[in-house]
Each structure stands twice: as structure tokens, then as C-alpha cells.
Amino acid sequence: MYDYIIVGGGSAGCVIAARLSEMADARLLLIEAGPRDDNPDIHRPVAFYKMTSGPLTWGYQTAPSKQRNGHVMLLPQARVLGGGSSINAMVFTRGNPKDYDEWADEEGCDGWAFKDVLPYFRRAEDNNRLADDYHGTGGPLGASDLVSPHPLSRAFVLAAQEAGLPPNADFNGANQEGAGIYQVTQRNAKRCSTAVGYLHPALKRGNIDLATDAHVTKVLIEKGRAVGVEYFANGQTQIARAESEVIIASGAIGSPKLLLLSGIGPADELRALGIDPVHDLPGVGKNLQDHIDVYSIHELNGPHSYDKHTRPHKMLWAALEYLLFKSGPVTSNLAEAGGFWFADGDERSPDIQFHFLPGAGLEAGVPPVPSGYGCTINSCHLRPRSRGSVTLQSADPIVPPVIDPNYWAETYDFEMSLRGLEKTREIARQPALAKFIRKEHTPGPDVMTRKDLEAYAKRFGKTDYHPVGTCKMGIDDLAVVDPQCRVRGIDGLRIADSSIMPRLISSNTNAASIMIGEKASDMIRGNRSTGESS
Prior knowledge:
Blueprint: E1 2-7, H1 11-20, E2 28-31, H2 40-43, H3 84-87, H4 97-107, H5 114-124, E3 125-127, E4 141-143, H6 151-162, E5 178-181, E6 186-187, E7 190-191, H7 194-203, E8 208-211, E9 215-222, E10 225-233, E11 236-248, H8 251-261, E12 264-265, H9 267-272, E13 279-280, E14 286-288, E15 292-300, H10 312-325, E16 337-341, E17 352-357, E18 374-381, E19 388-391, E20 402-404, H11 411-428, H12 431-434, E21 437-442, H13 450-460, E22 462-463, E23 493-495, H14 510-530
Parallel strand pairs: 1-2, 1-11, 2-8, 3-4, 11-23, 12-13
Antiparallel strand pairs: 5-16, 6-7, 9-10, 10-11, 14-19, 15-18, 15-21, 15-22, 16-17, 17-18, 19-20
């Protein structure tokens, strides 16, 4: 018997476990489907390129896309302690303040306006350069300037300015628009995941039981209340019971899947799969949103990029530089520079984000250049209007769900993505970057008409790894949780992760997931201290 069971040891789950463990008399169980975060590649920043596929992900694919001629893409989701914060590109951005104001004003999420969530962003943060109204120091999450930004990344920032973007040294400050070098979730030249920053120190308190390689298959509901979970570990099915609450933090794919397997969701869909509905909640698995990238890759006129470090002698030198001085290529998150700008000039804030990678073919599914030396500029439309879904294809918990992001279902989204691609090509033509480029590899010099660009985008567009929204927070008919993160209609059950975002934020999503974990933990502790029912 535990006080709290947290399902999912990812970006939010590690935060919640650590914060709840500050209550010395609380008994906690944290269950993670993947292994512990002891793979050395997790902690070496440059090894991000290995993480977008492989054993530390679920191996998910999207459903065939109606808008992309049946195209299927990889949708990497972490399966390891620390979750996305253990395998992502470490880009430290929070989104735009207006994102959170819209959650509160237009989605009925009282208490989630920017003024309400900013203290949680600051509480989490240990920034090595910034300390002001927008930034904190001394928190569990390392937020740092890159140790050794690549010269090409600096060239991109100059080229973006030549293309009309202002310089910006802090995307999480008073202004989001502009181009600059990203801060990263690192401390002392190592990745700072929530497992590293929050959980490992908290485990020393002795009141958290950690179960890894343990797959939760069902939330146990008795008389309308969550009382525990069923999970599979060490070759057998096990039961754990929670006296106070079960908190689901399994992400935008895992959280709705677990609810559905537990009989919580659209009743007719559940019956069709032979699952007895426990609670009819139509919004479970609906409202899926994700950023889709369209990129341009450029072949360089010499060994100017990180691609040269794939040569054995260069790789050895980089390893020695890192071991001896904690500097050099190994400290890179690869997506070093970027920016925020407007595809639609009438938008309330930037609606396009760029990521610049001083290399080519660094991510799963992205082709290298023939010469071996290239650079990549990704662009994504930040506030898509299209909505997708996560549904079960079987009552068997081992079978992957059907993930349909429904990218570009709205023609507006497609148009904004194409404008973003056009801007990446414009930036690459500017003198500061063009002097390093031999030719555009993709889309390629022959792709010039709008029809050609559309065909290219439909073929090569890829996820930006930011799925959210499938257990949305709010007050409308599709809301799964209320503004206290409590599942509607079930006592003792909360969800606190990226799945509760009612709308996708205008940037990378990891920092927001951490904020959700911070805020949810305060809500849970507040209920405990006041005796309020959860």
C-alpha cells in the first residue's frame, strides 16, 4: 500500500515523484515501463542523434496520413527513466506567454495563465547565465548556454538576421521573436534530464520505491475511485494500491492508452474492442496535436560541419577533448541554433520555429548528403489547427495504439509549413551562411514551383517530437481533466503531463511538461494538507 502511485517516470513523472517525496511521511511508488537511465549515451549531449530510434523508444509509427498520400512516419516516444528529457535535443524553450493566457482565457483553465505558471518555470530552473523576472537559479533543472557552439551555428544566426530576424539571446524572456543560440537542459556539459535533476537526489530520501521495466496495464477503479494499478514486471502480473491518489504521467500517447485500457474513454469505442466501460469520457485520445517539420538540407563546400567527426581520428579527438576539458563537439545538442518568426504576419506572436543543425542526416529518417558534409535547417508551424487522435486497435496492452496526428488536415497549416520552408531557403541564401554552401541538397535546385514544394513537404515532413493534448484540460465536452489535473468523474485519479495541454505551445514542449509536473505536485500536496478530496 502506497500513498501515491505515479505511472510514468518521464519529464513530468520524475518531477512529481521528487516533489511529493519532500513530504517525509509520504509513501510513493514510481513505475516506469523502460529501463533506468544508465546508458552512457543518454548523458553525452551529442549522442542525441542516436536517441530518435532504438531501444529507448517505443518504436511507434503514425497511421497512414490521408493528407500525405498514405505516408507513415516514425513517432519517437521515450521508453526510459527521464522520458523525453533523457532522449530529446535538450532545447530549452517554454513557448510564448500568450499560449498559457489562452489556456486560461479561452479553454477555461483557471490558474494556468502565464502569470500563474511562470513561478513554476522559475522554481524548476538553475540557469547559468540568466537571473531575472523570467529566470530562476538553484532549481533542479540545469539550463545552460552551450559550451562550444559550432561556427556554423553562429553563421546561421547572422544569416537569419540578414534575412530580417532580429537577434535574440533569450527566447524565454520578454520577447520570443528572433534568432539566436538555444540554451539547453545541461549542467556541467552533461544532459540534465528530470531523472538526473529531480529523481536521483530524491531517491536518497528513502520514501520512493522505483519500479523500472514495469509496464502498467490497468488502473484499478472501485466504486468510482482509483485505488491502484496492475502492472507486469519480472515476468508476472503485480498489483499496487494507492491510499490517496494514482497520478498518470505517461505522455501524450501512453496516458490516453492507459485510460482506454482501464475502461475510461468513449464507451462505444471501448465496447467495440471488448472492453467494459468504467466511465464514459469522450475526450480521451482526442485533440492530438504535434509540430511537423519541413527541412532544407545543404551540401557544404568543405568539412565545415560536425559530419567530419564521424571519421575515426576526429571522433577520438572529440572524445578526448570532452573527457579532459568538458568542451568540444560532444557537448553539442546538435540543434544548437534557431529562432522564432512569422509565417502569417497577422498572428499574435511568432508562428514558425527554426532549428539549425550543423550536420546532415543526424536524425532518424533524414538523409545525409553525398559529399558527407552538410547542414540542416528545420522549420515547423507552431500552432496547428489540425487535430488527430490516439485510439486502441486491441484490448491487448502490448499492442501499440493507432496514432493519427492528422497533420495538415487544415489547409492553413500546410500553407504555413510551406512558408516556413521558403524562409529556411531564404536564410541559407544569405552571405553569412551561403559562403559555406556548395548547393541545396533538399528540396534541391529543381524544386521551385509551389506544386513541387507541396510534393516535397508531403514526402519528407517529419514529426518535431511534440505530441500533446490527448487528455486535454478544460471545461468543455472533450475535457478529460479539470484545471486541478483531476480526471473528470473518477476520484483519486489525476493526469499530469503533456497530454493535458489543451493547445500545443509555441515551442519545444519539454520545459512545459516539467512545469506541469511542478504545478501538479503543489496541487496534490495542497489537497493532502487541507484534507480536500482529490
